[in-house]
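Hey, can you fold this one?
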Amino acid sequence: MPILNVMKMPIPAQAIIYTGKNEKFMADLLELTASIEQMQTWFCWVEEDDGYALYIQTLEGRMLVTLGSYIIKGNINEYWSSKAEVFTMTYKIMRGPIN
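Sure. Predicted structure:
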């Protein structure tokens, strides 16, 4: 089979920045997931020696979210994390709702 030249299709998504376990971030995460049940299904906090770590249950498995990373909600309500450097190369922040 020959090598295929491909381009990723533009798919609308929503994202927030992980700023740590604080009131503002928790409100943003709840808004992104739309319910406490969804938040608890996809996200968990694990107590570690230096505080709490946030994990996402992605379609590929459990993923650690690092401070400053983006949490992204895809078009089939799945979640994943992206480091800020990768996010800025891959995504364009849109103003207003995306249809």
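The mean pLDDT is 92. Let me know if you want another pass with a different chain boundary.
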